[in-house]
Design a protein that fits this description.
Order of helices and strands: HEHEHEHEHHHHEHHEEEHHEEEHHHH
Low-confidence stretches: 114-118, 135-175, 201-238
Largest sheet: 7 strands, mixed
CATH architecture of the largest domain: 3-Layer(aba) Sandwich
Number of helices: 16
Radius of gyration: 24 Å
Shape: elongated
CATH class of the largest domain: Alpha Beta
Oligomer: single chain
Structural class: alpha/beta
């Protein structure tokens, strides 16, 4: 692989940039182990982050239904498109994986749950403010039951657009579950995992769509719920990935899978949503150019929604707990204004936590118990 990679770089006059983590895997055996770890099926959708020269993409494309590759380097994209032009099931997009634009691209790619009629309705709504008032007039003048009945019978919407029969205002479904395969730079690992594990990665709809349902916030149709914290529409089943296979720096991987007494905000966050596991070590000699640190292949599976927990409040508590890692958790929670110390002492005793315990000594289960107890106190007050 090394000879082939160098030939390609010479042909296209491309120089890998260390600051972008452009260290190409040169060991085909490890490439095959990554594929095996991903446990791919013929009908899978795979999101690849950091597609590079496309060697992994090529192997993915041979095995799955569709591959969406996200790459930020325009020079690499040119090489990629030339090399993989014969793979019709591969789409590459130049975008920052952490951007709002990438989020929307992934949502549309993984969740084709709207008919063309619905898309046209929403596009025309965004483009023409007059239609906005017409649509809102329908919502304001029709009850939820009348509106649902009218739309389910294929009634004409404003400007002659028709919503599909036997559907509500917008279709909802589980969407197409997808898998992620990524080689992550160190400086984006935490934000990447937070974006793709948290509820923020439900199919994000535009503010225009959420505006359509504001009059029905209390009783949203067909399982749709309007987020109170942001102007976006969420379906009851998010478009989060089924699993992730990630190449990360060794030390980051160890932090993610850590257990008490070595927990961190990162390990709590990842383990709150999923089951992470280091599969194997990848030594520096397996890359060109050779990086300064070793890597691991990390598999994140059993990714789940946490419907019984307000995630924002839960992680506000966790962040407060880690304010000063050397200090007792009791003091950090008081400093973070989560709860008064006297109430904390009662809660700690109730759930069996030592008053001298530190944040890094708690498991995810301990944090959940603490959250539930704190929630009970606040509701009582």
């Amino acid at each position: 692989m090394l000879r082939k990679i160098k030939e390609i770089c010479r042909k296209y006059n491309f120089r890998p940039l260390r600051r972008r983590g452009q260290n190409f895997l040169i060991n085909r055996g490890i490439l095959e182990k990554i594929i095996k770890t991903a446990d791919l099926k013929k009908d899978d959708l795979v999101l690849e982050v950091g597609a590079g020269l496309g060697f992994l993409t090529e192997e993915l494309a041979k095995r799955v239904k569709k591959v969406l590759a996200i790459e930020i380097d325009k020079e690499l994209i040119k090489i990629f498109e030339e090399r993989l032009k014969n793979y019709k099931n591969v789409k590459i997009v130049k975008e920052d994986i952490l951007s709002k634009e990438a989020e929307e691209i992934i949502s549309e790619w993984a969740n084709p749950i709207r008919s063309s009629a619905e898309s046209n309705l929403l596009k025309s709504y965004r483009a023409n403010p007059v239609r906005k008032s017409q649509l809102m007039s329908i919502f304001n003048n029709k009850s939820h039951q009348e509106l649902s009945s009218r739309l389910s019978n294929g009634a004409n919407s404003p400007n002659g657009l028709v919503l599909p029969k036997k559907q509500g205002l917008l279709k909802t479904s589980n969407g197409a579950r997808y898998k992620i395969v990524a080689n992550l730079p160190y400086n984006i690992t935490s934000r990447f995992l937070r974006n793709f594990l948290s509820s923020k990665n439900n199919p994000i709809r535009s503010s225009a769509e959420s505006y359509l349902l504001k009059s029905h916030q209390a009783n949203p149709p067909y399982g749709l719920e309007l987020s109170k914290s942001q102007d976006s529409l969420k379906t009851s089943n998010g478009a989060r990935p089924e699993s992730m296979v990630l190449m990360v720096q060794k030390e980051v991987g160890k932090r993610i899978v850590a257990k008490p007494p070595l927990m961190s905000k990162l390990s709590v966050m990842v383990q709150f949503y999923s089951q992470p596991k280091i599969i194997f070590l990848v030594k520096k000699a397996n890359f060109w150019p050779r990086p300064k640190v070793e890597s691991v292949i990390l598999k994140i599976s059993e990714i789940k929604r946490r419907l019984n927990v307000n995630e924002e409040n839960f992680f506000e508590m966790v962040r407060a707990g880690f304010l000063s890692p050397r200090k007792y958790l009791l003091n950090n929670l008081e400093k973070g204004e989560i709860i008064k110390k006297e109430e904390e002492k009662k809660i700690f005793k109730k759930i069996g936590l030592s008053l001298k315990i530190r944040a890094q000594e708690l498991s995810v289960e301990d944090w959940e118990k603490l959250y539930a107890s704190l929630l009970g106190i606040k509701e009582h007050n």
